[in-house]
């Protein structure tokens, strides 16, 4: 939340590599100086399973599959004779696929807090800021090409954008570039898809002005916070929770309301009670309690 201090926690990954356990700092919890409440909002980082470069000059070629150069591979217009790295005039785009989203099947789209895609930018044509766009893509295979995937770089699939440069010797050198891909991640969760493919394309392909290079080792991080569990053991003056004509009448000036609340992520759950009255066929609220830690 805005203004909160953020700290990383130790984690232990299960032997199958598909789950992890986070260990809370018990000393911090017990410290009298700790400001409550504390929030445990886990973030899961997914490894790329496939990636590729596609280009317009070789529309049927899949030779860019799993490119590995630490110098990065290009995004944008590469013009022969303008830069030594351009052995032909072509437009290039990059795509990464991340697997394992099936682990998020228990989530609702509204429970995602953030989703960021990051790629290491190794080079820009100049020190002038130019826009790069991210897109939600179709899944990859080892035979994906310009012909099969260029058509997915459309406005309805567009996600986060960045306007920047990252060139050695410029005000901003090589660095991690982060794109907001929350909209696409929410769609994938809603559709229960196991994979999430993300493409990068230069906004300006009229010249080399928008040319950039990115390394292969991109990453996807999704942060979520699941909704609290439905309260249990709800009771009014220890009489349980009853609805309909069997609910009891209390001839008391006060009533003790109780419930047990829990959170699937281990956060501290809070409850709030509301008192309503039924008059002339309609319910109206007469009192609402403060939040109480369960």
Structure in words:
By secondary structure, the protein is mostly beta strands. The protein has three helices and 18 strands. Strands 3-5-4-11-6-12 form a six-stranded antiparallel beta barrel. Strands 1-2 form a two-stranded antiparallel ribbon. The chain has a two-stranded antiparallel sheet with strand order 13-14. Strand 16 and strand 17 form a beta hairpin. About 3% of the residues have low confidence.
Chain-wise SSE layout:
Layout: E1 10-13, E2 20-23, H1 26-30, E3 43-55, E4 73-78, E5 90-98, E6 112-124, E7 130-137, H2 146-149, E8 158-164, E9 175-180, H3 182-190, E10 196-202, E11 212-214, E12 219-224, E13 232-236, E14 257-260, E15 270-271, E16 274-279, E17 282-288, E18 292-293
Antiparallel strand pairs: 1-2, 3-5, 3-12, 4-5, 4-11, 5-10, 6-9, 6-11, 6-12, 7-8, 7-10, 13-14, 15-18, 16-17
Summarize the structure.
With 294 residues, the chain is mainly beta. The protein has helices spanning 26-30, 146-149, 182-190, and strands at 10-13, 20-23, 43-55, 73-78, 90-98, 112-124, 130-137, 158-164, 175-180, 196-202, 212-214, 219-224, 232-236, 257-260, 270-271, 274-279, 282-288, 292-293.
């Amino acid at each position: 939340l805005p203004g909160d201090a953020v700290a990383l926690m130790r984690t232990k990954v299960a032997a199958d590599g598909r789950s992890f356990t986070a260990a809370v700092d018990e000393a911090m919890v017990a410290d009298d100086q700790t400001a409550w409440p504390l929030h445990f909002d886990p973030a899961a980082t997914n490894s790329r399973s496939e990636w590729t470069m596609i280009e317009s000059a070789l529309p049927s070629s899949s030779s860019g599959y799993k490119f590995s150069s630490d110098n990065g591979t290009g995004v944008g217009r590469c013009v022969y004779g303008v830069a030594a790295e351009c052995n032909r005039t072509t437009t290039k785009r990059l795509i990464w696929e991340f697997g394992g989203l099936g682990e998020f099947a228990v989530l609702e789209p509204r429970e995602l807090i953030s989703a960021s895609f990051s790629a290491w930018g190794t080079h820009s044509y100049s020190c002038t800021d130019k826009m790069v766009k991210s897109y939600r893509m179709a899944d990859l295979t080892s035979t994906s090409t310009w012909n099969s995937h260029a058509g997915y770089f459309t406005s309805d699939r567009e996600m986060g954008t960045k306007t920047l440069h990252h060139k050695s010797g410029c005000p901003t050198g090589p660095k991690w570039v982060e794109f907001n891909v929350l909209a696409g991640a929410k769609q994938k969760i809603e559709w229960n898809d196991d994979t999430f493919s993300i493409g990068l394309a230069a906004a300006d392909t009229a010249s080399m002005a928008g040319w950039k290079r990115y390394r292969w080792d991109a990453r996807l991080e999704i942060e979520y916070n699941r909704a609290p569990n439905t309260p249990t053991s709800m009771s009014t003056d220890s009489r349980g929770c009853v609805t309909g004509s069997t609910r009891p009448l209390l001839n008391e000036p006060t009533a003790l309301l109780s419930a047990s609340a829990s959170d699937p992520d281990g956060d501290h759950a809070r409850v709030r009670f509301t008192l309503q009255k039924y008059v002339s066929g309609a319910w109206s609220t007469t009192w609402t309690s403060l939040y109480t830690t369960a």
